[in-house]
């Protein structure tokens, strides 16, 4: 499994990359559709239809690349869940020596030797 640890993202990077990929896909698909349909307010003006089609195709190609990274990030999430890297942190061990104090946040102190 050491090879898979090098292939997949870490637990938090996989979550971040998933969010960024979804944002990139939605943005690029929207922009590509607007450019393809000659929406006037995109801020991009074309003098010929070939440049418009090339630009829209570039947006759709980039969205497909983001989709590939999305698949990779989602697989990384499942891998990290399987390896228990993405679950809740383990519970802290109970404090020793102050069990009856009633304070769940109390600390354990070393016992002091009595003074002579």
Model description:
The chain has 116 residues and is mainly α. It is built from three helices and no strands. Helix 2 packs antiparallel against helix 3. The longest helix is centred in the middle third of the chain and has 34 residues. The N and C termini lie far apart (58 Å).
Question: What's a quick, concise take on this entry?
Answer:
The protein is 57% helix and 0% strand. It has three helices and no strands.
Primary descriptors:
single chain, 116 residues, elongated
Secondary structure elements and their pairing?
Blueprint: H1 2-7, H2 11-36, H3 49-82
Helix pairs in contact: 2-3
Q: Low-confidence parts, pLDDT < 50 over ≥5 residues?
A: none
| Number of E strands | 0
Portion of residues in beta strands equals under 5%
Q: Please give the alpha-carbon distance between the first and last residues.
A: 58 Å
Discrete helix count: 3
The average pLDDT score comes to 80
Following the backbone from N to C, one meets helices and strands in this order, namely HHH
Principal-axes geometry comes out as elongated
Helical content stands at: 55-70%
Rg, alpha carbons = 27 Å
| Biggest β-sheet description | none
Structural class: mainly alpha
